[in-house]
Amino acid sequence: MVAAAVGGDRLVTEVYALKNESATQLVNVLRPLITPNNSIAAVPTGNALVITDYADNLKRIERIIASLDVPPAGEPIVVLVSGEAGIGKSTLWLAGVTDIANVGPSAIWILRADGGEPRKVAGGVALNTSPVWVGDSRHLLFVSNRDGPRDVYRLLLDRNGTAAGPLERVTQGLNPSSISLAANGHRLAYATLAINANIWMVDVPADGRPADPASVRALTAGSDLVEAVSLSHDGRWLYFDSNLHGNQDIYRMPASGGPIEQLTTNPADDFNGEVSPDDREMAFHAVRNGTRDILLMPAGGGPESTVYAGPYEERWPHWSPDGQTLAFSRATEDGTDLYTINVKNNCCLRRLTVGRFSDNLSPTFSPDGQRIAFVSTRPGLPQIYVMAADGTDQQLFAPFDYGVTGSSNAPDW
What we know:
The protein has 413 residues and is mainly beta. The protein is 5% helix and 44% strand. It has 2 helices and 32 strands. It has helices at 23-30, 55-68; strands at residues 2-7, 11-17, 39-43, 48-54, 86-87, 93-99, 106-112, 119-122, 128-133, 139-144, 151-156, 168-169, 178-181, 188-191, 197-202, 217-218, 226-231, 237-245, 247-254, 261-262, 270-275, 281-287, 292-298, 305-308, 313-319, 325-332, 335-342, 347-351, 360-365, 371-376, 383-388, 395-398.
């Protein structure tokens, strides 16, 4: 049996040829906007960007690229990455957003238009986005999921840019993706974004024959978003993350279908649960202190323990066959690299790849634990590589012509 998440959106690959900006520089600007597990790469020879992402998100990214790839003008342009900029009408403040992905914590910052130190006015472990100034330049509206589903919040600021009153929740159950306020302040326009992905299963014949389409069946049928699924090694349980109750949590259900059990309940987001080879523990990555970290918990739910928590983004843990080691990705401003750590002895962090300004993702051990397959953008486009478990002998395994044979992603043995 093979389980897979089928999305309400489709993955698309686009090539963007730039006329003014450097493709290499824009990779770091745009990377936080790319949906987790998808990719962005620069092709320096043609000064182009190659992006694989969901079609709806690509439309948003295309607009941002168009706004950045312009000839230099006679006056400076302020660009606030991963968000919309708004300027107060009677004061000299800019508002903008920093974030790490479409799902995850983000912060609202303000900055004087004539320069100075930026100030964070809304942050924490929730999503905060789409800031809009009210006409009095004292109130700031923005979208947040700090109380569950997305709604509009209002914050009063003094002339120094600090909070002058409590945060107010303006709407209930609106679920906006972005907002815009009319010039007279009397009407608010908003856009909603609904992406759903459910879990389906198909029986795979042991003799190698093609699967029978009649055996395809849905295990979930909600309007939530399932990002990652994995089976326990005994075949009894199916683990998945979902925003079934607002934020992303990890759940499990019988592999043949049945009642769903919620395993994590933290108000921050939890992703990519994978059980150990003995089916006793579950590794996952979660947002706990503003960035993604690697955690462990009992496979049936219980207290969490931290495997690795750094100042950057640690994601996609994968167990070695002996259950001693976790491989994972760590993203910094220089790119994404692969690491391993001994979880049984809580020691021996080892860096396996050194990919400056490239991404190395989705590590998976071979059944004998001797090798690791992974995705890398080091040639400019996502390709499948294989290396020894200690990081040596890195080799291109499955080259392909981008746009002809498709995208390489999430290898498995």
